[in-house]
């Protein structure tokens, strides 16, 4: 099968061996679980339990609201002890509405939907089960999976791509999942393909994961519609646009969804969750997390209940050998700084990575050397040094004109920059600023309309008043005559 | 017959006057100076008067004559100031502008006596509520101009910053401030 090359990209140090070699371990039940109501893109879920309620494992705690949303379920049986603010796993460290659950240690399951032959279900039934199970993209984006399945009804999908790239350094949770659960992953893949009506399915795996490639090939061998594709290890292979280009040769135009060009991309972890939900009726209540980085004593992959505080994971993996310079959620390229170890694992958490000073590459910044390396590696063909200069000077509109909005925040430019400019950070800031301006603009237009409506209303009221006055005089004249 | 006639006359009169009023305000608002026009475009258009001018149109004229700084409009904030500077071909240092961020009016439920004065003062019709009932502010429509707070007889309207949440949180600029 032909492979296409996307532009730019880098080959960062993988650092995957310390975790890839160990089988996935199971975390003992934590003392407390903190389950945020917003773990996905879209509207937060609405709680359906109250403090003091006893809940069973898999019971729905909060239902989805609006078209883009996902419910959340109890990761184990226990008692709801609080519903309120808790630190979000988000770099801002802001609180988020969270249900706190005290496990009773019994792991008693709620009555779940009976296991069925999943291929006897209609497409709508598959989508409904995926939605009710609260499945979101487990690769990190956390976009509700059922919404993506549904998009298949609006745009015909010819190709389903399963993302087994895992191009971020340190992360190996998808690698281990494919090695240890290939059969379930493939079944989930077939269900997603059925749900989308995709003609062809490609499972793309980077060539630095030979064991996973082999396991998936064996598991998929019986299904002629599915091919397992070995793709080169190059960051950001796992980014949706780059993966689509690599597999199909097609480019997703800026601002468009992959579904609009007939492609749908799902992560391998999502496929496994779909299999569990559709075949066994089990909602998404746990996930595999890579606990790694040089500061972790015994790095490894762990399957944990959603809502487990990062601190419990670090402790399970032997704690820190040195005080980490930075603790990230997700990989070092696109991951976000964890504000504190009390922040919980959520559906989109692929890793807890604790970096030492040497790994964090904390070097002080110098002036731009105009070396052009950032330009060479940018996968979208932007000119990061120019963008950075404009953003620094506060010329956000100019940066927007140069394509700031197309930036993937992949961090390739910052990675190679010999002057250590905080390019990725500058661009995150600029994109936020662009969004804020768009919002301000929208509000200004809204204000103008409202002010205009008020002016017309006052004018009409004044006119009505003026009209009433002569009316009274006429009436008077009539009665007098 | 006379009755019907008088009703018709009244209706016609009402319509005509309304039209005249509309026209008059068009005339009053109309300017021939393209710069003033562009400046007016850039201003929020709510005629709230916080700049010290009776409305955005007058503010624009003052700006065009160089009588007012580009930072004159509090509800417009930094974004509007930047646009004004661009139109006038001047630069401005955002550091000079105390960017208090957008504000929202909030009616304190225990203070509101339902007098409806705030409704009449609001330039964007952002307040809802019947007489003698609790009034509420529509967050979407409020520009935080503070006109309502000024007229409220019980001091029951506060202007508050919009709280930072996960939804509107943004990255700070590297090297300034902190997360
Ligand atoms: S972070 Fe943005 S500008 Fe930098 S390489 Fe990635 S896409 Fe290009
Ligand atoms: S890589 Fe860094 S130093 Fe080189 S041109 Fe880009 S921003 Fe400047
Ligand atoms: S402060 Fe701004 S919005 Fe209010 S009248 Fe003046 S220019 Fe218009
Ligand atoms: S501050 Fe008060 S008067 Fe001004 S827009 Fe908001 S609600 Fe209306």
Automatic annotation (TrEMBL), chain B:
The organism named in the record is: Thauera phenylacetica B4P
The prosthetic group or cofactor this protein requires is: [4Fe-4S] cluster
Q: Where does [4Fe-4S] cluster 2 bind?
A: 112, 115, 118, 152
Organism lineage = Bacteria, Pseudomonadati, Pseudomonadota, Betaproteobacteria, Rhodocyclales
Chain intervals for the UniProt region annotation (Hydrophobic): 1-25
Predominant location category:
membrane
User: What role does this protein play?
Assistant: Part of a membrane-bound complex that couples electron transfer with translocation of ions across the membrane.
Q: How does it assemble?
A: The complex is composed of six subunits: RnfA, RnfB, RnfC, RnfD, RnfE and RnfG.
Q: Which residues form the 4Fe-4S ferredoxin-type domain?
A: 103-132, 133-162
Query: What is this protein's record name?
Result: Ion-translocating oxidoreductase complex subunit B
